[in-house]
Each structure stands twice: as structure tokens, then as C-alpha cells.
């Protein structure tokens, strides 16, 4: 099985020239498409590929009696590159399903293409709630999180703790816009006030001008509506700038992998939303140990990588139920019809709009003296049931949902 993975990944690196349509009909082929060299590479990257490989191995290496291949590619956070890879995978390399896909603009384009070509798209790294809203399709499942759950959840929680006046530092692309919108609505619905916002390009190196605007706003809270290395860089520079002396930073999507770069001393007490943490139970701890043994940097898995593992498992169950992977719409329908159950997210469901439902955890960064190891970073403060964490199905305007 490991040889299959090595061969498949080599083929992907060579542009797929060795793969024929006939070959694809004899196998189930899934692609992990994400950022492997840019600002999101630590948060998905090779870790998501490892997670997919582990899921296939744990499932037994076959679905519907056919061997399962995992290939991967780097979309470089460029929409044209990502869309081009997806089209090539679907048209000439017989890929049946695409997983992960951080970068909401690329995710939305690939979701539409997957419907057009009757393939399957399962977003784990993708954030935009449009995937289960106005842009939902019968070929899409949104697995791990979305901007509604994170933005609304943290917005409400921080206002409840006294953070009434907000200013947003937002990444200037689809994901950032959506995250800002959801957080703003959560703040306002809870009685808070939004004083303004400023937007920055992806991969910004110098945040001084943006931080000056945040500082001058008079806000209590600066909501950091970006992701990946942009979050770490902006929060670090805000601390160096002295902004945190009078204002509180809230990283709306500050993930576990970013905390070591910030350091527990700087990050302690910060709260984040997540549907997965490696130290939740025996199942998550066992997976994390196996994952770290295979990861080049020995990193522990984050929620998005865990989402790839769990969604691949459920996808393969659906392929078995349908009897093949050719009809993407039928496979997604089977995924929705079956309850989900895996060692990382436990039991759950997939709604008609494609939204995977599971609990979210409000997690708090530990103090330095509370941590016993490099990845012992967080503690559970509260659990939010899935039916409360995600946007109500009736409010998303998904055309698949019957009124």
C-alpha cells in the first residue's frame, strides 16, 4: 500500500502524464489539494496528505473492491493554479474526489466544477460558509469548520466577556471577508459594536499601517480575521507594536499549529474554537501519536488534518455502499444517508446542505507552567453541541434544502 502512495504522489508531481482513464476505472483515486509551500502549508500541507493516507490504510486499502490511490498537489494559493489542477485531475487523471482545499476562492470554484463533472468535493481546510449556503451543491460536503461557526461563536463569547467595541484586521480575499462578516454579525447580535475594519493582502509581511488604524479606532477588541502564517505574523507584530497594552487581540482562526510560534507566554489565555484537539480522549491521542511518527517535523495533527482523515473514512464507506466512485452525486447522497462515526469526531451526521455536524470546543491556551510537552497547549473550557455551533440549515439559502 505504501508503494501505491509513493507511485501516486510521484505521478502527481510529474503532472499525471502516466495516468490513463482506463487505469482510473480500475481504482478509486482521491486527490488532496492544498497549500504546500505558502502561508497555510503548516496547517494543512503534507499533514493532510498523511491523514488521507492513514485513513485509506486503516480502511484496508480498498473500496468497492478496488485499490485506493492518494495523490496530491500544491495549489500555491492561486485560483488559476488550483482550478487548473482540479480540471486536469478530473479530465485526464481519473480523480474521483478532491479533499481539503484551504483557500475559499479555490474551494468555491472546485465545488462548482465537481458538480459539473459529477465528482466529489469534501472541504476540510476550506472555511467559507457559502459552501453550505447559496453555493451548496449535491456533490459537496463541508466537514470540519466554517466561518459562521468560528466567527459567530467567538464574537458572541468575547462580547459576553465584556469585549463590546470591535475593529477588524481582515485578509482581503473570500475567506477573510466571510469570516469578518460572520464575526461582525455575532458581535452585533450580542449587543456589541463594530467601529471599523481594514483589509490586507494575503502573505503581508509588514502590518504597521494596518495596526495603526486598529490602534486609532478606540476599539476594545481587534478581531484578527485571517489565517495561517498571516495570523501569526499580525499577532506578533501587534504585540511588538504595543497594541496589546490597551487592546485585546482575538484570533478568529488561531489554530493549534500557530501557538508554538507565538509561545505560551504570549498566547496564554487566548481562546479558540475547534471541533478537534489531539488530547480529547484515547482515540484522538492514539491517532496523534501515529500521525506524529509519520510527519516530517513530528507535528501533532490539527482539526483540519483530522477532518481529512475522518472524511476520507466516511467517503470510502459511501463508495462501498454505492458500489463504486464514478457517480459523485450518488456517493455524496450515501454519505448524507449514513450516520458518521470515527475515532476523531465521534458520532455525527451530514445535513442536506452538505454541512457535517459535530460538537465544537471552546479551548483556552495553557499557561507555560501548565504545559508538560511541546503539543500540550490547550484545555477545554466549554463544549458547544453541533446543532448550536453551526448555522441553522433554514438560514443558509442552500437550494438543496426544502423550504
From TrEMBL:
Annotated keywords: Amino-acid transport, Signal, Transport
A family per Pfam: Peripla_BP_6
Signal peptide residues on this chain, from the entry's feature table: 1-24
Record carries keyword Cytoplasm: no
Entry-linked Gene3D superfamilies: 3.40.50.2300
Ranges for domain Leucine-binding protein: 28-366
Gene Ontology biological process: amino acid transport
Family: Belongs to the leucine-binding protein family.
Protein name as annotated: ABC transporter permease
